[in-house]
Structures are given as structure tokens and as C-alpha cells.
Amino acid sequence: MDHTDHVRLTSAELRPNVIEGATIYGPDDEEISSVDHIHGTGEHAQVVFDVGGFLGIGSKRVALYATQLDFMRDEDGTVHAVTQMTTDQLKALPEHFD
User: Fold this and answer.
1) Which of 1, 19, 59, 71 could form a disulfide with 50 if both were Cys (CB 3.0 to 4.6 A apart)?
2) Dihedral-angle region of residue 52 (phi above 0 means left; psi in -120 to 50 means alpha; beta otherwise)
3) Which residues of the chain have pLDDT under 50?
4) Positive or negative, the Cα torsion across 31, 36, 42, 46?
């Protein structure tokens, strides 16, 4: 997927009602996960999602700061995010507990 023309979200748009459920893509445009929920708003928000596993079995819940993801809208207005971290790098993060 070419993200060049996608509109980047502002820090004010990094709110639960905007980004929860957004698909997260890796550096090779593989679908890694989707946003489960966030803690806080704006650039300092923590984005929580599951990584690895299959259909939720064997997955690990992790969190990244919103600034570690590039959130954007595609030409249809659908919000998604891109990370430069691979699935293996995300799996190596500490497990997130709410």
C-alpha cells in the first residue's frame, strides 16, 4: 500500500474514538495488528494492541507511544497506522498490563 498521499493525523486527533480499531501495518506493509485501546490522548498517548499469535491465541499485549506510530487516513477516510518495527521487534517488547 502506498501511504504517500495519505493524510497524517494531528496530535489532537489521537483520541480513542478516532484510532481504536485502526489497523497497524509493519515496514513491509504486512498487517500486524489493530489498536485495541489507548491510554491518554495526543502525542503522549500509549497505544495498546496485541502482537503475534493466531486469532488471539498466543498473542502478547504491548504498548507503544502514539509518536512511535504514523497514524493516517487513506483516500476513503479509513484510519490506519504504520510502524517501522517488525513483528519480532514488537514481540520483544515488555508485555503491557492495564
Assistant:
1) 59
2) left
3) none
4) negative
Read off the C-alpha cell for 78. Answer: 479509513
Q: Of 75, 77, 94, 78, which is closest to residue 25 (Cα–Cα)?
A: 78
Tell me the per-residue pLDDT of 50-75, one tens digit each, with 9 for 90 and over.
998 776 678 899 999 999 999 999 99
Phi/psi-derived region of residue 18, left when phi > 0, alpha when psi is between -120 and 50, beta in every other case: alpha
DSSP state of 13: G
Residues 47, 65 contacting (CB under 8 angstroms)? yes
Residue 50 identity: D
Q: Which amino acid is at 61?
A: R
Residues 17, 28: Cα–Cα separation, whole Å = 27
